[in-house]
Amino acid sequence: MTELKNIDAELSLFRGRLWAAAAFVLCCFGLLVYRLTVLQIERHDDLASRAENNRIAVVPVVPNRGLIVDRNGVVLANNYSAYTLEITPSQVDDVEATIDALAEIVEIQPRDRRRFKRLREESKRFESIPIRTRLSDEEVARFTAQRFRFPGVDIQARLFRHYPYGELASHALGYIGRINQREAEAMLDWPDEEQANYRGTERIGKLGIEQSYERELHGITGFEEVETSAGGRAVRLLRSHPATPGNTVHLAIDIKLQGLIERLFGSRRGALVAIDPRNGEVLAFVSKPTFDPNLFVDGIDTESWKALNESPDKPLLNRALRGTYPPGSTYKPFMALAALHTGKRAANTVIMDNGVFVFGGNRFRSPAGEKGGPMNMRRAIVESSNVYFYSLANEMGVDLIHQEMSALGFGRLTGIDLRGEVTGILPSTDWKRKAYRRPEQKRWYAGETISLGIGQGYNTFTMLQVATALSTVVSDGQRFEPRLVRQIENVVTRERRVPEREPQSPLVFQPGHTALIREAMYGVTQEGTSTRVFAGAGYTSGGKTGTAQAVGLRQNEKYVASRVEESRRDHSLYEAFAPVENPRVALAIIVENAGFGSAAAAPIARRVLDYLLLGIYPSEEDILAVQQGRAAAPIGQSRPAAEVPLPPRRNAFDVEEEAALPADAVPAVAIAPVAPSSQPGRASQPLVPPSAPSQPEPPRPAAPAPSSAAPAAPAASREQP
């Protein structure tokens, strides 16, 4: 039986399906049109920019680092360009195999591999890491011919820092090094503008002037817009903005004087700081031994680091800034001024020095051979009477001593324009309560005050603090923050400016008090412990020798230098200023474990003053005698300092060059010569100013153990003329 179809129903069903399919297609087209509208209209600018960025790379242009020059324009830190062979680990399948293959083309030493491994651990995988630096032209050509074999390896032209005088003034200059992880994280907290300025920068200042004046030396980063291929290689330069080099930093030090002082120290350890008391400029800043900052620029190798870090002489320790020592008898003039200022003792008060000061059952002795007898203040300074200052410390008490000495800058930061300065220890009852844990240690015992009067006991200061305090005293209380940097020169405009400094309010001293201290220190050079050293000087100077114990002695134990190992012998100290009538230089020096102040430290100070005030340079015979600790007044034929050549310097490839002063440089003498004066006094007329043209923590000195009445071994200053 034939079934009849319902044509109308089937047509209706077909039309429904057709409309549904049409609606679906229409909806799909609508979505497509909507998406095209969003992409081509609403997001056009964003997507066009992203597409352009895929084609254009913005490459930072790292600026040339600024120069560092001395007061005469002699370049102490500059830059040189060299080719480096670099590997990007993320683009290399087998790094070790690649290095082995590269070693067949260019020389790669084990130390290069070790440095690469260390830098790789500190860097991200996509960062380019040098495997070899300072490639020769021949090595560049050999690699370029076979570059197709080494994806992820390329040659880059880099700027490197160079210190042409090597170890000379290294603690003042510091060095630059690769940015480590800790420093990179710290940079994240910088303002966006500063972070942008350091894009592409791989090295920053680590110590010294390089670190403290990093912003001035770095410059302003430029950029290049480069069109790149699909493979990321540059095709053509579209636009560029040149980088602005860093500013030139002019130091106050004279590199010829600096070199002379370092030669005078020889192989001995110590520090010297010389300051112009009229403005706080640091004329010399010496820490011995030194190190070669060039070792750190490209990443120091393991052997060199081990030699520096494990050396018993601690060449990485900046002794001028961070080395703390008992000041010994150089402390006595400051104690005398404190007594006058507080009224604790008059200048004409006489104390009988019989060689021993007895307190609490302990006998505080004077050095053998000291003259003794009745002592007023002047004679006590000239003769370096221990008994006089033992009794003075007992009369003043520790807290009053702390108050007066703190005002002079002891136990405080001087504010010098270098980072890492330490305060040393200026003891007080409050300091001891905070320094110790056990109740019996927190108590201050009266016997502990006695040795403070002669610069021993808990006292430990830097030579920078001693020189700064002396500058304040000889300038009648005028204070300045010591400054190594004299001027900063804008590399574009050539304009120079003086770095800002915090103004220091002067200390109020009676002119008669400071005049007495200056006159007594002048007497030290005429009839005291440094008479032989300053015999025949063509100027007047004041000074004070010091001999400080490196280790304590037991009661009644006698010190004999020849029976003590060198590292336990006394330190030799001297402080000086000149000329007496209008001081233009104040200095403090220590020669570690070198004995009496007049034997080692004072002769160096004499040669420094001769150079600065008379413009003369010692003979080679005299320099050798000073190095050996057997010099007093200069011997041999001195030379005009201006005629002595600069210290030898080496170029970036370790080839010695002939050093010469710039054509527009002033003579090497930092301070104009003065005529000798027969009597000390204060000159009223102004004198002509000078012409303008990661370190390891040092061990803190251990504080002596307290006792019930006095230190177990009373410290004594061992002075002799």
Question: Gist?
Answer:
The chain is an alpha+beta fold and 721 residues long. It has 25 helices and 25 strands.
Radius of gyration over alpha carbons? Answer: 35 Å
N/C terminus separation: 148 Å
Percent strand equals 15-25%
The major β-sheet equals: 7 strands, mixed
Assembly context of the chains:
single chain
Number of distinct helices: 25
Secondary structure class reads alpha+beta
Task: Give me some keywords for this one.
single chain, 25 strands, elongated, seven-stranded mixed sheet, alpha+beta, 721 residues
Q: What do these coordinates show?
A:
With 721 residues, this protein is of the alpha+beta class. The protein is built from 25 helices and 25 strands. Helix 11 packs antiparallel against helix 24 (601-614), helix 15 crosses helix 17 (386-396) and helix 16 (377-383) packs parallel to helix 23 (511-527). The protein is elongated, with a radius of gyration of 35 Å. The model is unreliable at 553-557, 660-670 and 672-716 (pLDDT under 50).
Summarize the helices and strands and which ones pair or pack.
Elements: H1 7-42, H2 44-55, E1 56-61, E2 68-69, E3 75-87, H3 95-102, H4 110-122, E4 129-135, H5 137-145, E5 153-162, H6 170-173, E6 176-178, H7 181-187, H8 192-197, E7 203-205, H9 208-212, H10 214-218, E8 222-228, E9 234-241, E10 248-251, H11 255-265, E11 270-275, E12 282-288, H12 294-297, H13 302-309, H14 319-322, H15 332-342, E13 351-353, E14 356-359, E15 362-365, E16 373-375, H16 377-383, H17 386-396, H18 398-407, H19 429-435, H20 439-442, H21 447-450, H22 463-474, E17 485-489, E18 496-497, H23 511-527, E19 542-548, E20 571-578, E21 585-591, H24 601-614, E22 616-617, H25 620-627, E23 639-640, E24 649-650, E25 656-657
Parallel strand pairs: 2-10
Antiparallel strand pairs: 1-8, 2-3, 3-4, 3-5, 6-7, 8-9, 10-17, 11-12, 11-21, 13-16, 14-15, 17-18, 19-20, 20-21, 22-23, 24-25
